[in-house]
Amino acid sequence: MPHTASSKKRKKQPLSAAPMVTTDSTTGIRTMAIDIGGTGVKAMLLDEAGKPLTERLRAKTPESATPKAITAIIADFGKQLGGFDRVSVGFPGVIKKGVVYTAANLDKKWIEYALAENLSKELGKPVRVANDAVVQGLGGVSGVGVELVITLGTGMGAALYLDGVPIPSFEMGHHPFRNGKTYEDELGRRALAKAGRKKWNKRLAEAIDQLYRVFYYDRLYIGGGNAAKISIELPKDAKIISNEDGILGGIKLWDRNLDDLQQ
Ligand code: BGC
């Protein structure tokens, strides 16, 4: 079967958390791309082609990860990074038209929070927000056919695309996967720490197999910090996407064909 996974070692990819180095050689629209995660909040500036203009800034996600606390971190990033024209945010929960519907690994105050609108007021710039897995995938998918992205980090993210356009309210991490546990229970950060790499990889192979039989996707992409912990051989229609690929998603979020997802 083309999607069957088996065991074989993969190379680890380093995560960058270097200090900022701004460049002043750009013209055109500058986008501040933000990724809000359960363990870290990250930001960098991108030029119009999605090329990084700065190193990535990172702050630890506070214990009490409220909208107020995270907004203060983003505002501070904005000051450090300087001149930007618009903002893209990847958020770890369901987002519809800039409003948060779920936030499993952050404070409950996020539920029904108008993130795009409020952050735009705070920063004085237009803001687009989408689920973090959606943003990551926008930078990596080919744009042809049915494509599924899963992200392995604090939580388990998922995004589904038809010809490159994501379904905005798609959420899979909290659905039952096996033994009465959800995908996130079995494949999230806590599960990896508890079960260890070998078992976690075995579960991942099972999940990939199961997901193929749900979506019969044309391609599967796997992103997120723990993608570096994958040691199984992936099926030939699956590949790992790096955080760098994901960053480009911050630019794609502004594509005209995604206007409807935002307003
Ligand atoms: C959330 C998803 C998110 C994922 C990765 C899950 O807990 O429900 O919406 O994409 O974590 O951050």
In terms of topology, how is this protein built?
Layout: E1 6-7, E2 31-36, E3 40-46, E4 57-60, H1 67-81, E5 86-91, E6 95-96, E7 99-100, H2 115-123, E8 127-131, H3 132-138, E9 146-152, E10 156-162, E11 165-166, E12 176-178, E13 181-182, H4 183-187, H5 189-195, H6 197-215, E14 219-223, E15 232-233, E16 238-240, H7 243-252, H8 259-262
Parallel strand pairs: 2-5, 5-8, 9-14, 14-16
Antiparallel strand pairs: 1-15, 2-3, 3-4, 6-7, 9-10, 10-11, 12-13
Beta-D-glucopyranose binds at residues 92-94, 102, 104-105, 131-133, 151, 153, 155-157, 171, 173-174, 184.
Defining traits:
alpha/beta, Nucleotidyltransferase, domain 5, 5-stranded mixed sheet, 29% helix
Structural write-up:
It is a single chain. This protein has 263 residues and is an alpha/beta fold. It has two domains: 31-131 and 252-261, Nucleotidyltransferase, domain 5 (2-Layer Sandwich); 136-245, Nucleotidyltransferase, domain 5 (2-Layer Sandwich). The protein contains eight helices and 16 strands. The protein has helices at residues 67-81, 115-123, 132-138, 183-187, 189-195, 197-215, 243-252, 259-262, and strands at residues 6-7, 31-36, 40-46, 57-60, 86-91, 95-96, 99-100, 127-131, 146-152, 156-162, 165-166, 176-178, 181-182, 219-223, 232-233, 238-240. The strands form five sheets. It has a five-stranded mixed β-sheet with strand order 4-3-2-5-8, with helices on both faces. Strand 10 and strand 11 form a beta hairpin. Helix 3 (132-138) crosses helix 7 and helix 5 crosses helix 6 (197-215). The protein is globular.
